[in-house]
Amino acid sequence: MSEKSIFERIIEREIPCSLVYEDEHCIAFHDIEPQAPVHILLVPKKRINRIEKATAEDQTLLGHLMLKVGEIARQEQFAERGFRTVINNGENGGETVPHLHIHILAERKLQWPPG
Q1: Which of 28, 33, 78, 108 could be bridged to 42 by S-S, CB 3.0 to 4.6 A?
Q2: Residue 42 in contact with residue 28, Cβ under 8 Å?
Q3: What is the pLDDT along the chain (115 residues), one digit of tens a residue?
Q4: Could you tell me the strand order of the sheet in which 26-30 lies?
Q5: What ranges do the domains of the chain cover?
Q6: Strands, E, within 26-70: which ranges?
C-alpha cells in the first residue's frame, strides 16, 4: 500500500483541519491555501487516487459527494450567490494530491475560462 495521503492523515485526525462537514463517507474542510474567499475541499474517506481511477463500485460514493456539494453550499449560505466545483486529474489538470477531492469555490466572481 502506498503512503497515506495528506487527506487520509486529516481523516484520521493526525493533521488538524477547519471542519465544515463530516459523515461516514466523506469529510469537508477549508483549504489552507484558499483560491477564493470560500474554498472548501470535499474528500471521500475511501481513497480513490483520481477521478479517472474511479470504478463502477464508486458510483454511489461519487453521487453522494455531488449531493453533499449542494448541501454544503446551502449550509454555508453561498448556494444562491453561486459557486464552482473543480476536480483536478493528473499533472496537466492541476492535481497535487493523489486522493480524489472536490474543490468548492465561492464568494467571488469566477472567470471563464479558468486559469
Answers
A1: 28
A2: yes
A3: 478 999 999 999 999 999 999 999 999 999 999 999 999 999 999 999 999 999 999 999 999 999 999 999 999 999 999 999 999 999 999 999 999 999 999 999 999 988 7
A4: 19-22, 26-30, 38-44, 102-106, 83-86
A5: 6-106
A6: 26-30, 38-44
The three cell numbers of residue 71 are 448541501
Catalytic residues: 101
Query: Is pTM, for the whole model, over 0.70?
Result: yes
Q: Which three cell numbers stand for residue 42?
A: 470535499
* Superfamily of domain 6-106 in the CATH hierarchy: HIT-like (3.30.428.10)
Backbone angles phi, psi at 56, to 5 degrees: -55, -30
